Please model this.
Amino acid sequence: MLLHGGPAQLPEPDCRRSEKRMTVDINTAVVTGGGHGIGRALCRRLARDGVTVVVAELEPDAAASVAADIGGIAQVVDVGDEAAVQALVESVERDVGPIDLFVSNAGVGYGDANGNAASREGGMIPCDDRWQACWNVNVMAHVYAARALLPRMIARGGGYLVNVASAAGLLSQIGDAAYSATKHAAVGFAESLAITHGEQGIRVSVVCPQAVATRMIGIEDDAESVDGGFGGNDVDGILSPDQVADDVVAGIHAGRFLVLPHPQVHTYFQRKAADHDRWIAGMQRFRRKLTGEER
Ligand SMILES: NC(=O)c1ccc[n+]([C@@H]2O[C@H](COP(=O)([O-])OP(=O)(O)OC[C@H]3O[C@@H](n4cnc5c(N)ncnc54)[C@H](O)[C@@H]3O)[C@@H](O)[C@H]2O)c1
Model:
């Protein structure tokens, strides 16, 4: 597999298909949550590299807009609904072609209510609904995609699954227990996929960024600055969605399981593994700093 390298650029409308610069066995890709943020950047990057991209997205307008921009195909889908994911895979394989790459990127996070990791209270949505939504979108959507695709990919000798988790899946997201727990589950599921199906030609990458300038951290698409929007707190290096998309493509090119757009995450992960108690104490201090309990 050879992927086109180089810096991310916005594609010229209507020029991608004629200029296939991605000499790969990836002809067709599906990107969930492709309407905004990291997913949108990935759709653009893949289309620029000559891949036919299916923008699978909950918001119809966002799906249509990105698909029109890149000459791709819009599919409105709730990835937390297994029947919808199954129907998505069937329709793409029937009408577009075999799915070579499926990026499970859609994700949600709501934050703890009242600073309590196990609160029964509602925050943006009632507590158990919040946990359920995180479970459905951050974990089960990956399972549903793999369930629909593995038999097809194995039968044709291979395929690529990219699951976007988070650094919260290796470390933790302070102030969001449901997000942290489900992103850990997403990393664990990706490991299981790679271990169980790697020898059947299934390649798997799990992407674990820290802060990325998207709506998820309060930064609108195409915001001119990627610096604010995180509650005014110091953030350890906010990346643009385009930078993350480039790192994901580089990770695919290298066949790398763990894609870490923020290299410092590797160091933090090693420190956590080396001394878990010390890492927890450090995170407690960091939490106090973030909440203003300690300066
Ligand atoms: N932004 C960050 O700081 C950050 C850091 C680490 C990991 N991530 C992960 O990156 C992924 C992309 O997030 P983002 O930052 O681009 O956020 P975003 O909110 O900009 O984009 C998420 C997209 O997913 C879509 N979506 C949500 N629920 C869906 C569903 N049920 N079905 C289909 N589509 C759905 C949304 O409509 C949106 O287009 C998520 O998995 C997120 O957890 C983000």
Observations:
- The longest helix spans residues 127-155.
- Residues 32-33, 35-39, 57-59, 62, 77-80, 105-108, 137, 164, 166, 209, 211-212, 214-217 surround nicotinamide-adenine-dinucleotide (CB under 6 Å).
